[in-house]
From TrEMBL:
Family: Belongs to the aspartyl/asparaginyl beta-hydroxylase family.
Aspartyl/asparaginy/proline hydroxylase domain mapped to chain residues: 43-197
Pfam families assigned: Asp_Arg_Hydrox (PF05118)
Record InterPro entries: Asp/Arg/Pro-Hydrxlase (IPR007803), Asp/Asn_beta-hydroxylase (IPR051821), IPNS-like_sf (IPR027443)
Keyword terms of this UniProt record: Dioxygenase, Oxidoreductase
Name of the protein in question: Aspartyl/asparaginy/proline hydroxylase domain-containing protein
UniProt-recorded Gene Ontology molecular function terms: dioxygenase activity
Lineage: Bacteria, Pseudomonadati, Planctomycetota, Planctomycetia, Gemmatales
Length: 243
């Protein structure tokens, strides 16, 4: 079956269970997905490991280097949108996870986790409006490094949200959304996608799509790209350290 036909059919099926076009853009985390509060409370540890990566000049691929489907929004300018993948549909890049063991221990406590990665925008890097392909998940951001000068903002369904360090937001990624960023400093967040809470029958379909279909297609390809990049960049770092 054609991917777009399949996606449209599944989203149409999920529609009545999520409120169709009346579904919210943003969610209260404590009500909608309280287990994510473990990550928010773990902010000091997570930011510490992220800052260690930055201090060690850990190489991070551009988003479209590991997921070519993101090229239209990742490669829209010379400025980079870089990612550091920690989990994708059950695949866990070992080299990356070894750099952030405490963050990964916290992630392992989140039920229904689909993917998790550090997301870093270069100074002045905006992300054009786009929408996620699938109603079966919600997206969480934890602010790790947020510029105070001309702070960037997330806009979901026309509603603004301004990141704050140590603060989290949960939103519906399937709505049109964008990042407006005129800041002279980098913006970094931890992105975590989780399965959307659904009644039993649509939840079973969601489990099948994420744990079987997407895991062995999209997830496998992205994880392989992330692992290949990590292996190559690790070898380069060792060579530099030995020189």
């Amino acid at each position: 079956m054609d991917y777009h036909i399949f996606k449209t059919a599944v989203n149409r099926f999920f529609g009545p269970f999520v409120g169709r076009d009346k579904r919210p853009a943003y969610f209260d985390i404590a009500t909608a997905y309280p287990s994510l509060d473990k990550l928010t409370k773990g902010f000091p540890v997570i930011r510490g490991e992220f800052e260690r990566l930055m201090a060690e000049s850990a190489a991070m691929p551009r988003y479209h280097d590991i997921d070519k489907g993101e090229r239209a929004i990742s490669d829209a300018s010379a400025k980079k949108w870089s990612v550091f993948m920690l989990e994708i549909l059950g695949h866990k890049p070992a080299v990356n996870r070894a750099c952030c063991p405490e963050t990964c221990r916290l992630l392992d406590k989140i039920p229904g986790l689909i993917q998790a990665f550090f997301s870093v925008l270069d100074p002045g890097k905006s992300v054009p409006e786009h929408e996620g392909p699938y109603l079966g998940y919600l997206r969480y951001h934890l602010g790790l490094r947020v510029p105070t000068r001309k702070p960037p903002k997330l806009v979901v369904k026309g509603q603004d949200y301004q990141w704050k360090e140590g603060e989290a937001v949960l939103f519906d990624d399937s709505y049109p959304h964008k990042v407006v960023n005129d800041s002279p400093d980098i913006r970094a967040v931890l992105i975590v996608d989780v399965r959307r809470p659904l009644p039993m029958v649509p939840n079973l379909l969601n489990l099948f799509i994420t744990n079987v279909v997407a895991r062995h297609t999209y997830g496998k390809k992205v994880a392989k790209k992330a692992e290949e990049f990590a292996a190559t960049s690790g070898q380069i770092l060792k060579q530099r350290q030995a020189a």
